[in-house]
Amino acid sequence: EAIQKYMEMGLSSSSEKVKNGVGGNQLTPPPEEPCWWKFLKHQLGIFSLLLWGGAILCFIAYGLDPTDLNNLYLGSVLAVVVFLTGCFEYAQEAESAKTMEGFAGMLPQQANVVRDGKSQQIPATDLVVGDVMTVNMGDKVPADLRMLSVTNLKVEQSSLTGEPDAIAKDVTSFEENPLESKNIAFFGTSAEAGNCTAAVVLIGDDTIMGNIASLAAGGERPPTPINKEIHRFIKIVSGIAVMLGVVFGIVCIIDDPANYVRTLVFVIGIIVANVPEGLLATVTVSLTLTAVRLGKKNVNVKDLEGVETLGSTTCICSDKTGTLTQNKMTSNHIYVEFGTATDPDSTYEVNAITSSSLGDPTPGFDFGDLALAKLLMTCNLVNATVFNTGKVGAGEDNLSRHIQARECLNGNASDIAFFKFAEGCLWKKDGITVGTQPNEPMAESMRLANPTATVANSTGTPSKLIIPFNSKYKFMVSVNWVADPSQGGKLRPAVLMKGAAEQIFQRCGTYVKGDEVVPIDQAKVDHFVKVYDKFGSAGERVIGFAMKYLDEDPAYNCAQTDEDTPDTMEVNGVPLDTSGEPIKPDASGYYAIGSQQFLDWGGPENVTNCMDKCPPPATPAFDALTFVGLISLIDPPREVVPDSVLKCRRAGVKVVMVTGDHPKTAAAIARMVNIIEQDAETIDMYAERNGFGKDYAAAYAAANAEFMKKDSNSDENRHMRYTKSVIEAKVIPGHELKTMTPDQVKEAFMYRDLVFARTSPEQKLKIVNAAQDMGHVVAVTGDGVNDSPALRGADIGCAMGIAGTDVSKEAADMILMTDDFSAIVDGIEEGRLIFDNLKKSIAYTLSSNIPEISPFLMFICTQMPLSLSTVLILCVDLGTDMIPAISLAYEKAESDIMERPPRDQHVDHLVTVKLVSFAYLQIGVFQALGGFYSFFVVMNDYGFKMRTLFGNADALGGSSGIPFAKDVSSISSKCPCGGGESWDTYVKGLDFTVSSLGMVECTGSKCNGAGSNDYYPEIYTPVDGGSRYWKDTDAYEDLLDKAEQKQGGTTAATAWIAEVCDLTDDDKFGVAFTKNDDWYPKEDDKNKWSPNNWPYGWGCPYGALRPTQYCKYPDIEFVGPNPCYKGIEALRHAQTAAFVSIVIVQWADLIICKTRILSIYHQGMQNTVMLFGLCSETLLCCALCYIPGLHQGLFTRDLIFWHWCPSMPFSILIFLYDETRKYLIRRHKAAYKGTPQEVGWLEKYTYY
Predict the structure, then answer these.
(1) Maximum alpha-carbon separation in the chain
(2) How far apart (Å, rounded) are the C-alpha atoms in residues 1094 and 1107?
(3) Phi then psi for 816, rounded to 5 degrees?
(4) Is residue 833's pLDDT more than 60?
(5) Which of 450, 449, 464, 448 is nearest to 566 (CA)?
(6) Residue 1083, CA distances (Å) to 603, 979, 998, 1109, 1125 in order
């Protein structure tokens, strides 16, 4: 009475419990790192820290020398680049994280509750413990519920317990294990039939589902292979950069201890040249692009780095149903002994009956046969499936379709197949065709005419006599009032049973043969085993059916009543058991379900499928059932799966089937989809072929002996080297797996073909762990909650998008939206492609490091001016190289990508010695030579021969590429002689002026040859004829003052100046002017080179290195400052040419990096992004060279066309070299294919 009142009133809406419980019924999402921490991690990675360090060094260098804006520009660019790269990576990660939230989707939006005595709808998140609520058919259960009243409620909880069929719920059945309790419905499950009123007992994280979810979410995932590879690469590059920077920085300090700025600039240059600043962005973009491509193939990637992990996969543990097969069960064969047999084996193909043509069975049979009537009763009455009576698809009436095409409600795939088979047979019996079918489905009408028997439950209301299916006992029972055709349609009480064929048969003592019931003898057992094996070997799921009329036994008292009143169903005066569980044969209320017959036949241990070991009991037990027949179901393989499995085999990926189906069915399907090769033998097949029966020990011994005659060294027999047997395929049922040690499971993986059958979801993790312990990278498919530990424990978890639960999708790394195995193979190919393309991108990017690093090495070793400035290195790494490097992510796979074995994670790294050798010592050397050649050509063209550059880095403006000396009073000036004054300023102090022709007009009294306009005066000669010493200038006086302070006296200062500023010695920094009539720039010869027309001014602003070569190009060809004979301008032009040379040789580098072994002729140039990259880097290079506004910050200059050309032969040479290398590799492989010599010297040492 109290419970009834509680059910009617529920909780009070005004109670504190209800008010405080708003929003409390939801799962806590898995813990996540704060956004700010994620962002900070992207800003403070190893690469990022290295570049931040470079930026800080630049700012320090600028602080030490504020006049050098180059360091300020470089530091700013580095800081911006690191920041933006980190932002980009963070944005990509945030985008990839926007996937479905696995647990939030489990909660229904509304819940029907009783509060204040009224039914009302509230958000499911507002449920509180103690709420009274109703659940109807089709509802998702929003919390853990305790049943208060039940009306035929069945809850589908396979995702939680692994049970394939819905579980009937009641009010009283309680077990210590809550998952076995029938008076509890669990959060996240769904009601498939009936309804209930229940009390909320657990909400949110406290629910059973919440606890499992928290376990699945707990624990950190190991780093992915690509994550390991990227971090390894970063450490290698960072280590090289820091080591070189420190080593050569020390060399600089030893060479010039006082010049801190130059040392800092040099260290920065080494770091910037070694670190491929754009690589991390390239990696992120590449992974994202691949994830998008997989999305188009119905693979939803949750973790970007998981893409490559799938490419590294060496073993796939795949479900069968729905993944390898279509999950569309169809009745394919029946095994029934008709009164008039038309087949000697009594087997009939029946799939045509439900097809659009409504074809006939093969061979045909009498649809009015009594044996068929009993088969239809057992398969249809022990079934809740119905046709959807509404509109389906694009508004089409479902019942207007042919039987096989109709959509169904309730029931699993097997039930649907049985229901459609029964409908088809009833149509055939009555001669019905599509278009003449009745409004009510005939199979459903049969159920109405043969109702389920009821008994009184604890509340006195009718309760159906049903034992739901359970994986423990593998059958389902329904007691019905059945119209017996042999007695004119009289309704008789009968036990109807369906389940695992071997279980059902062992519960029977007789079998149906037409209108007779015949005792089971050994001949019938042998016939049953033969048919069972035949169906199972064909990959068909075999279900058995049996029945027994209860009124045949006088112990039963059965009487039917009206629908609202419980039937009279008694045995020995006791009501039949309503627990819904198979109780013991001697228990009160037990009714005949064949349990005693099963024990008598199977022995005290109740051994399953013991027909081959034990003869049937001579006298059937009191509860023995009558065997009706078998229906085999076919779940055909997906069309693309066999080819996909073969593709995996060729790619060296082991495919293992892990299924809950029967071993014979599993083995047959595995053979259909090539998991077991067509000619491979299991131990069963080998024993049968050689006449060993079931003596497996003898069979194994013979197989081992036969192996000794084979060539175990051949590659095709490599799997036999461990097994020492000719047995190539192994099928392991769950009961064997349960007792196997981890080492024994590992041994099983040594077989070439492997299937695990009749396994539980919990055993998946055991299989996965064994494979991982062997070194496999394991991909696992799963769809249930119990699969989530295996999905999380695998290297790559693949959840099912259609059949998968939200928990499994949350635990997985990617989701197969179509539940199709071929999508995994697509993922493997894409994963391999991304690894290949990342290798190519890295090879392309690293190649330019050598022409970037070598100028600094040459500067240290030879004091040659830098042929490439640090800013221009950044222009390459973050400008011209960026889009081409990313374009390699769009490159299609090479034809052998799925012919190669999976990469060995311990050997085949993202960056290997061979890749570094290829990028640095082969292509990089060509590029460096091209850069230096371009540099020397341009310097030579502007008046500076190559031999004069060595040792004169400071004379051309120092290692930074700009003049050091701008302060005439600085004693540390590298150009003290001339003090940095321009010629124009200098001659004004000597009464000289410069004519329009560049001639000097002498207007003062001290001129040599006063009034002469055709030659320069001698300015460094003894005092005679009015000429003047350089010493007489103010600059000299300032220099002398500083020198006296530095050297400690006038004598020492004068000697130092004389040594440094010897204007007659070409090796010094001074400028020597000598009179020579042959070199005067006369009117008709003004563009001719002469010591006297260099440098139109003198001192450091123009460079202190004396030219030694004619300038090939006159002033009129230049828009900007004239580089002729002016060292710093010539240097800027030469550095620009070296920058352009890198772009030109990178053209060839990009093209050769498209493939690692194929010719560009085979691969083609269909990569439009790459073509865009080639154009974009060329246009960007032109912009950096010719836009005047960029000259100030980048120190680039306008190049004439001919100075683009010196590096072009090197670009052609790179292309021809690599094409020749690949050709020789291919030719060798073709010549020695399949032999140990297949991998030649070139491939061994140059194939990266």
Answers:
(1) 154
(2) 8
(3) -85, 100
(4) yes
(5) 464
(6) 125, 31, 10, 21, 20
**Vertex 48 angle, CA 46 and 49, to 5°:** 65
Summarize pLDDT for 901-944 with one digit per residue, the tens. 888 777 788 888 888 889 989 999 999 999 999 999 999 888 78
- Please say whether the beta carbons of 1240 and 1228 come within 8 A: yes
* Four-CA torsion 562, 563, 566, 568, nearest 10 degrees: 40
Beta partners for residue 349, in sequence order: 333, 362
Burial of 2 (0-12, 13-18, 19+ CB in 10 A): exposed
| pLDDT tens-digit map of 565-606 | 888 899 998 989 877 778 889 899 899 999 999 888 875 554
- Tell me the pLDDT tens digit for each residue of 244-274: 878 877 877 777 676 666 677 677 767 776 7
3-state secondary structure at position 1060: helix
Res. 804: pLDDT tops 90: no
CA distance 659 to 677: 18
User: What residues does 305 pair with on adjacent strands?
Assistant: none
Tokens of 778: 């394991």
Bond before 1095 cis per omega within 30 degrees: yes
Percentage helix, strand, coil for the chain under 3-state DSSP, each rounded to 5: 45, 15, 40
- Closest Cα partner for 792 from 769, 825, 818? 769
> Partners of 992 in the beta sheet?
1002
Report how many helices (DSSP H) and strands (DSSP E) the chain contains, helices first.
Answer: 43, 35
Helix 279-296, helix 69-96: angle, nearest 10: 20
**Confidence check: pLDDT of 46 > 80:** no
State the pLDDT at residue 785: 57
Dump strand ranges (E) for 377-489. 386-387, 391-392, 396-397, 408-409, 454-456, 462-464, 466-467, 475-484
Which residues belong to the active site?
319
User: DSSP alpha helices (H): ranges in 134-276?
Assistant: 158-161, 208-217, 225-255, 260-274
Is the CA virtual torsion 579, 580, 583, 586 positive or negative? Answer: positive
Which residue's structure tokens are 């360090």? 53
Nearest CA to 350 out of 442, 408, 420 is that of 420
Between strands 654-658 and 315-318, the pairing is parallel
Instruction: Tell me what pLDDT residue 1079 has.
Output: 34
The token duo for 1167 is 């990569």
Q: Show the DSSP H helices in 456-558 as ranges.
A: 501-506, 522-537
The C-alpha R_g of the chain, in whole angstroms, comes to 44
pLDDT at 993 over 50: no
> What confidence tier does 978 reach under pLDDT thresholds 50, 70, 90?
very low
User: For 869-907, how does the pLDDT look when each residue is reduced to its tens digit (9 = 90+)?
Assistant: 878 887 888 788 888 988 888 888 887 788 888 887 777
Alpha-carbon span 661 to 1235, nearest angstrom: 41
Q: What is the pLDDT of residue 1066?
A: 38
Whether omega before 363 lies within 30 degrees of 0, making that bond cis, reads: yes
Structure tokens at 420: 């459609």
| Rama region for 762: left / alpha / beta (φ>0; ψ in -120 to 50; rest) | alpha
- Four-CA torsion 325, 329, 330, 331, nearest 10 degrees: 120
Q: Any bridge partners for residue 632, and if so which?
A: 333, 542
**What's the confidence (pLDDT) of residue 241?**
78
pLDDT tens-digit readout, 405-440: 888 877 777 888 999 999 999 998 888 877 777 778
Residue among 1067, 1108, 1074 at smallest CA distance from 1089: 1108
Q: Which pLDDT belongs to residue 1027?
A: 33
Hey, which of 2-6, 867-871, 1166-1170 has the most confident mean pLDDT? 1166-1170
Both tokens assigned to 335: 């095994």
